Amino acid sequence: MLRQARPLAPLILALAAAAAPAQQPPAAPAPPTSPPLAHSTGPDITVQGQTEPASTVPISGPTDFISPMGEPFRSDDKLSGAEHWFRHADADGNGRLTLAEFRTEGMRFFTTLDTDHDDVIGPAEISHYEVDIAPEVTVVSSYGDVTKAKQDSDGNITEPPYPTRLGAGRFSYLPMPEPITYADTNFDRGVTKLEFAKAIEIRFKMLDANGDGAITRQELPKLGSPHDNYR
């Protein structure tokens, strides 16, 4: 007895369905992406202080100025000596004097004073500085004005007021009568390159009032006349 043949179409459809890959659920939409963060091109803000926009207003003050590292700047135009120093030291002209710029300016003057190139400003070179380069540092009691002297060459004593700043301190931001020998930490009558470099870092920190790693015009002390420092 012959068996009745089963239709092939349903069988083919069943096999095709078994071979087909299982359908995956629709993928969840990707989360929106945030725009990339912009990188600041401005100066960093340190933990010690916050930066502020650098002023472009020229520094006011007298024409004669002694830089923090002892170099004299004497203006022959409408700008103060301090402004000439700041512009000379601010190599990139952005109004912010960094430690690197301050160091470069200071070490340049060290090289000027170290005439024999032995990496030491010796006694003869110090004398040359005090007599020929910055004679202002040798004026101690009278500021060049004999009426303000505590005692003249004849022993006559004058009454107060007396100066509160002496020598180069009258023309500078720092009250140091002789800024070169102030760097002589071991008192051997010579200033080595290392001593001078350390003095540069110390004096930079003294003038970086807000501790942000740069000196701006507006954070520097106000300069008056050399004869204003009496009490």
Q: Could you name the key traits of this structure?
A:
two-stranded antiparallel ribbon, about 230 residues, alpha+beta, 6 strands, about 5% strand, globular
Shape: globular
Number of strands: 6
How far do the termini sit from each other?
Answer: 139 Å
- Portion in helices: 25-40%
| Helix count, DSSP H or I runs of 4 or more residues | 5
Q: SSE order in H/E notation?
A: HEEHEHEHEHE
Placed side by side, the strands forming the largest sheet appear as: 1-2
Which spans have pLDDT < 50 for at least 5 consecutive residues? 31-47
- The whole-number mean of residue pLDDT values reads 79
Could you say which structural class the secondary elements and strand pairing correspond to? alpha+beta
Could you explain how this protein is built, in words?
By secondary structure, the protein is an alpha+beta fold. The chain has a domain at 54-139 and 165-224. It is 27% helix and 7% strand. It has helices at residues 8-19, 81-89, 99-113, 123-133, 193-207, and strands at 64-66, 72-74, 96-98, 120-121, 191-192, 214-216. It has a two-stranded antiparallel ribbon. A two-stranded antiparallel sheet has the order 3-6. α3 runs antiparallel to α5 (193-207). The longest helix has 15 residues, at 99-113.
